[in-house]
Design goal:
disordered N terminus, alpha+beta, 26% strand, single chain
Length: 806
């Protein structure tokens, strides 16, 4: 509004100047003859000179000729009319009270004598005389742009232009529209004093309008090269071409856009939350199904079925930690080959190196782009995945294995939520695998308890049978010892033989069923095999099985349990017998041989390839392997395409004692007590295990090595050991519980510690328990062995005194 007032004031000043100029012209200048005056063209009138762009004909009296292009325009202080020719135009101005220019109309051709005066930058003609020459066609408006209008070429001419409204205002001299351009141009509707000035109020900012009028200039200060305008003679000279968006419409559009944006954000958030809830529900359901799975293969199959849809991945791989072999063993499906990743050495190139790193670091490993991976993945696999996620499967603070998630079709960076879900699922898989292992142990314990119950039942029945069988044998022997024998002598001999045979069978049943906890002693394997052959030979003949045996007649003794070894060989013979049930050629061959102070027992059978029973063979080997390993040996099944299948049992022989010389009167000294002792070594580190075996063997111990605490406890329950050496980090049962459960079954329990801890030794040692630092030093080992020997002697003396008191 302040700008509009200033504009009105300037118009008033212009009017005063015009009046002053007109009065001075009337009083001081007398018309000269037209012939002596300059006759410039209308285009020359608008020429500018100097740095201020002043009019070239300023204050000169000239003769002009042109055609009126529009009606007179009334300002508060003066009246203006414009004439033009083919090249330019000029504006004539006279004082307002006279209104002498109203008599001229568009199309009139005029000759004007007047003085050129520059007012507000615009050259105007103050007429001294006006002559009407005639009538010509009304000039048509020239269509020009706002850029062309901002110049001197079209001043005084009738023009038509178009532009977008920048602002609308009202002044004392009339309404004003500002059109936005490189230079803003005004559209001004002049009004006399007291007339309304609100004709342009209907136009809004942003409207596109077309204006027709006289091109003019309003520039109060030099230089006079800017501030151009269009003088509209009537309100109808301005026409709206296009309605723009005003402030209310813009506000409405912005408000609607804001509401739509908020709605989209809320909808997206709700959709994201709903997707997350659905993903969590599927993850929890998958976790419950995994806990109820019966095997690692079933867990892998369920993961391969569900996880690609939940986490948008391509494949799933599972690797389980094998403590004994120190590897990560892959859980393979039916169409895959099982992979094994070594942990003690450098893993192979490919994704397996990432799995090994995840296991060692015990943390999530994300590889968004395998081409930038620190592991040699692409060098080993042509079709390597583009992104990888390795998840450690934890259970009770221990890494059970590694889960690998592959993305083949694109590179992706797994989000924090996806990593958390994957880790949660990996922990559930680890817990499920630990439960599977516990269920397996429980099943084995249940079978063991069941066998023990059956054994106790058999022992009870056998005890009842032993007495009548002994009586029958004794009576038969008494009858055979009489002097007078009749024809019943043959029958008595048969009764005696059958009774002795029945007693032998009962004795074997007792040894088979009884839960042994006896000290190891030499066992003649040759005699044991012959007894089993005699026991099964009748059934073999009835089934058409021929036997070929090559058992050494020399005494081949191994240190161990008679009943356990008898169970091993009986199981192998029964399996061979059952495998020959449908074979066209039925033959069993038993052979013994000695290789490098070890006894090799071979049991081969002529089973047809189609009648092989791999499941039963694997079951037999799993049952017998622990017993044979407890005796320091090994059992295996050899199957070749061009030979009969055979079982091989490899056992260490006991060194033969040299017979004493008959002429020697001095008795041979008894062997040292330590040379007769046995030791159990539970150590998963192969190097440490070999070192301890060598040190104990050099001191006369017979050593049984194992790498798992569970197997050690099972063996200690069946065989008596003088000492048990167990590493703190041995897989399986923790050493605290192992020492408590094994303490009463071995002569002494020695804990192998990585570093000697005096506090640990003070708390643990005592009552047959010792601590031996690793790596084992001979001096420390001798100290422990001496303390162990003293403890064993003290225990024997206490037992003898207790027996004497009893």
């Amino acid at each position: 509004m302040a700008g509009c007032l200033r504009f009105g004031q300037k118009i008033a000043v212009l009017g005063l100047w015009l009046l002053t100029g007109v009065a001075s012209a009337e009083t001081s200048i007398s018309p000269e003859p037209p012939a002596t005056l300059p006759h410039p063209t209308l285009a020359q009138i608008n020429q500018r000179v100097g740095a201020n762009f002043a009019s070239a004909y300023d204050a000169q009296t000239v003769v002009l000729r042109g055609v009126v292009n529009g009606p007179a325009i009334h300002f508060p202080e003066y009246t203006a009319i414009a004439i033009q020719d083919s090249e330019g135009g000029a504006i004539l101005a006279s004082p307002a009270p006279k209104h002498d220019l109203d008599v001229y109309h568009p199309g009139n051709e005029l000759r004007v004598i007047g003085v050129i005066s520059q007012r507000m930058g615009m050259p105007v003609v103050l007429p001294q005389s006006i002559e009407l020459l005639g009538q010509k066609p009304v000039p048509a408006p020239v269509s020009i742009t706002l850029r062309d209008l901002a110049g001197f070429k079209y001043l005084g001419r009738l023009v038509r232009t178009e532009g977008r409204v920048k602002s609308v205002s009202a002044t004392m001299s009339g309404p004003l529209i500002t059109l936005a351009g490189a230079q803003d141009v005004w559209v001004f509707l002049a009004r006399e004093q007291g007339q309304p000035t609100g004709e342009f109020a209907a136009y809004d900012k942003g409207d596109t309008v077309e204006a027709t009028g006289i091109a003019s200039q309003y520039c109060p200060r030099p230089p006079y090269n800017h501030s151009f305008e269009v003088l509209a003679p009537v309100p109808e000279s301005v026409v709206r071409k296009e309605r723009g968006l005003g402030y209310p419409a813009v506000a409405a559009v912005l408000g609607a856009s804001a509401l739509i944006g908020i709605a989209v954000i809320l909808w997206g958030r709700e959709r994201r939350v709903r997707t997350q809830r659905e993903r969590l529900r599927k993850i929890y359901q998958l976790g419950e199904e995994i806990v109820g799975a019966g095997s690692p293969e079933a867990i892998r199959a369920r993961l391969s079925e569900a996880l690609p849809a939940i986490l948008a991945i391509s494949r799933v791989h599972l690797y389980l930690h094998n403590r004994a072999a120190k590897t990560l063993d892959g859980v393979a499906e039916e169409s895959e080959e099982s992979a094994s990743i070594p942990l003690a050495t450098t893993p192979p190139a490919g994704t397996q190196s990432g799995a090994a790193a995840c296991f060692h670091y015990r943390t999530l490993l994300v590889i968004p782009d395998v081409t930038r991976s620190p592991f040699p993945i692409t060098s080993a696999e042509r079709s390597a995945p583009k992104s990888l996620l390795f998840v450690p499967m934890m259970a009770q603070g221990e890494v059970i294995g590694v889960m690998e998630l592959d993305q083949d079709d694109r590179m992706r960076d797994f989000t924090a939520d996806e990593q958390a879900l994957a880790q949660h699922l990996g922990n559930q898989i680890g817990a499920a695998l630990r439960l599977l292992a516990q269920r397996t142990v429980q099943t084995q314990l249940f079978r063991t308890e069941k066998m023990a119950a059956v054994g106790r039942l058999i022992s009870g029945v056998v005890n009842e049978l032993q007495t009548p069988l002994a009586s029958i044998t004794e009576l038969a022997n008494l009858a055979l010892g009489r002097d007078s024998l009749d024809s019943a002598e043959r029958d008595l001999k048969a009764i005696s033989a059958e009774a002795q045979k029945a007693s032998g069978i009962v004795a074997r049943l007792v040894s088979y069923a009884a839960a042994e906890q006896s000290e190891a002693r030499p066992v003649s394997v040759g005699g044991l095999l012959r007894t089993l052959i005699e026991f099964r030979e009748g059934d073999w003949k009835a089934s058409g099985i021929r036997l070929t045996e090559s058992i050494s007649r020399e005494p081949l003794n191994v240190l161990g349990s008679q009943g356990q070894l008898e169970q091993v060989f009986l199981n192998l013979l029964v399996h061979a017998e059952q495998s020959l049930s449908e074979a066209p050629r039925k033959m069993i061959t038993i052979r013994t041989s000695v290789l490098a102070k070890r006894l090799l027992v071979e049991i081969s059978f002529s089973a047809a390839p189609e009648s092989s029973r791999p499941e039963e063979a694997a079951s037999i080997l799993s049952v017998t392997r622990g017993v044979v390993a407890g005796h320091g040996g090994e059992v295996r099944l050899i199957e070749k395409s061009n030979a009969d299948p055979r079982f091989e049992v490899d056992l260490p022989l006991v060194a033969r004692e040299r017979p004493a010389s008959a002429s020697s009167a001095t008795p041979q000294p008894k062997p040292d007590a330590v040379s007769q002792k046995t030791a159990l070594v539970i150590e998963s580190d192969e190097g440490a295990q070999r070192q301890l075996i060598a040190l104990l063997s050099a001191r006369g111990f017979r050593v049984v090595p194992l790498n798992n605490a569970d197997n050690g406890l099972d063996l200690a329950q069946r065989v008596r050991f003088d000492a048990a050496f167990c590493s703190v980090h041995a897989p399986g049962l923790n050493w605290v519980e192992l020492s408590e459960r094994m303490h009463s079954r071995v002569g002494g329990f020695v804990l192998l510690s990585e570093g000697y801890d005096s506090e640990l030794a003070a708390d643990f040692e005592g009552d047959g328990r010792f601590v031996l630092p690793k790596p084992v030093q001979e001096t420390e080992l001798d100290r422990v062995l001496r303390a162990l020997e003293t403890s064993l002697k003290t225990t024997k003396v206490v037992n003898i005194r207790n027996n004497s008191v009893a």
